[in-house]
Automatic annotation (TrEMBL):
Bilayer-crossing regions: 43-61
The keyword Transmembrane helix is annotated on this UniProt entry: yes
Signal peptide: 1-19
Keywords: Membrane, Signal, Transmembrane, Transmembrane helix
The keyword Transmembrane helix appears for this protein: yes
Name of protein: Ferrochelatase
């Protein structure tokens, strides 16, 4: 009886060790985040000022 229980225990342990098949692990590529070059805040101010000056010049010319 002891041999039967031992054989059943070993069978159960061996069957769980081989459950499924070996598959290559899926390795995801790392995410690379590039920082954009920071523009100066003065560039964001000059464009609207130049456009405003052009509009003012056109209105003043009429």
């Amino acid at each position: 009886m002891k041999k039967l229980v031992l054989a059943a225990a070993l069978s159960a342990a061996a069957s769980t060790a081989f459950a499924g098949s070996y598959a290559e692990p899926v390795i995801e590529a790392p995410v690379v985040v590039e920082e954009t070059a920071a523009s100066s805040s003065a560039a964001g101010v000059w464009v609207p000022l130049v456009l405003l000056a052009i509009v003012a010049a056109v209105i003043a010319a009429d």
